[in-house]
Specification:
Elements (H helix, E strand, L loop, with lengths): L4 E6 L4 E7 L2 E8 L11 H13 L7 E7 L13 E2 L11 E3 L6 E5 L3 E3 L4 E3 L2 H11 L5 E5 L4 E7 L2 E8 L1 H11 L13 H13 L4 H14 L4 H19 L1 H4 L3 E6 L4 H9 L5 E5 H20 L1
Parallel strand pairs: 1-4, 4-7, 5-8, 10-13, 13-14
Antiparallel strand pairs: 1-2, 2-3, 6-7, 8-9, 10-11, 11-12
Helix pairs in contact: 2-9, 3-6, 4-6, 5-6, 6-8
């Protein structure tokens, strides 16, 4: 079977691809050739390394490749200019065409979204939001996309109205591996009770976050705070402070979470403690549904 089109999610550190047929996914592949490891002239070769087996023996019209993520950043293959909110998360007519040498493919990149005040940007998450809306067309509320840079988006009438980014994931990684706190939280263990305690403290007193963080080190030295409890409480403190700052997005709203199987349950647990049920959606399902929507919009625009 020959692919009808190819979906690409190209992040900072990883590259994922799916070949799509009439019945959906035919095959998938991934590599560690993320945007950060490539120069602009190296992107096409990296793409062909991944999807080459799917193109073997192909003749005739080029196979469309639709890509999202950091591949369209200023440091990526070709910069796909941001689209200003409020707007639909993806629009086929505004995809960025990329010149390629291989005649077997064409490549289009979905633009990210921007917000003037307060200044903010997203790239890749807009496609996941579009996919969530394709899966749940009547959704009206808040979408949270946990990750290195967590996003909260207000979604209404099929548009992203506003959004806000939190560096929660990156802060956890830096604090747990490069700050003085690393001395008390080795390993990868976990303590749910400590996480819940951290969430409650981070939400109640977000202005004391810096002091609460150092107390993890002090309690490890003076009170025997275990590494598992310290790691979990650090995560809870950071997520709690994020929820306190993002309260206007989730309070009294329907909430959907689009994230990994590791981070999404933590946000769901933290929100549940506030009496907010959250719907968890698959990142892969949302990404593919979003790229499918972009591809179908482009086809309509050309017809």
């Amino acid at each position: 079977m020959k692919p009808i089109w190819i979906a690409i999610d190209w992040g900072t550190t990883n590259l994922r691809g799916w070949t799509m047929g009439d019945a959906g996914i035919m095959a998938e592949a991934s590599s560690d050739k993320g945007m950060a490891s490539l120069k602009p002239a190296e992107f096409e070769a990296a793409l062909l390394d991944l999807i080459g087996p799917w193109l073997a023996g192909h003749t005739g019209a080029p196979i469309p490749v639709y890509a999202c993520g950091m591949v369209g950043a200023r440091q990526g293959w070709v910069e796909a200019p941001y689209r200003a909110v409020p707007c639909a998360p993806v629009h086929g007519g505004e995809l960025m065409a990329v010149p390629v040498q291989d005649p077997r493919i064409t490549v289009q990149i979905t633009p990210g979204l921007s917000q003037a005040k307060p200044a903010d940007v997203m790239r890749g998450e807009e496609t996941q939001i579009a996919g969530a809306l394709a899966l749940y067309p009547q959704f009206d509320g808040a979408m949270c996309l946990p990750g290195t840079h967590s996003k909260w988006a207000q979604v209404s009438a099929g548009e992203v109205v506003s959004f806000q980014t939190f560096m929660t994931g990156e802060m956890f990684a830096l604090l747990s591996t490069q700050s003085v706190l690393r001395l008390g939280m080795g390993g990868d263990g976990w303590d749910d009770t400590a996480f819940d305690t951290g969430v409650a403290e981070g939400m109640a007193r977000p202005e004391r976050l810096a002091a609460s963080l150092f107390r993890l080190r002090a309690e490890g030295l003076l009170a025997g705070l275990t590494a598992d409890a310290a790691r979990a409480r650090l995560s809870g403190l950071l997520i709690g402070a994020e929820l306190a700052a993002a309260r206007a997005y989730w309070l009294g709203m329907d909430v959907a979470l689009i994230g990994s199987s590791k981070t999404t349950p933590l946000y769901a647990r933290a929100l549940a403690a506030q009496g907010v049920p959250a719907r968890a959606l698959s990142v892969t399902d949302c990404t593919l549904a979003g790229l499918t929507r972009a591809a179908s919009h482009l086809a309509k625009d050309k017809s």
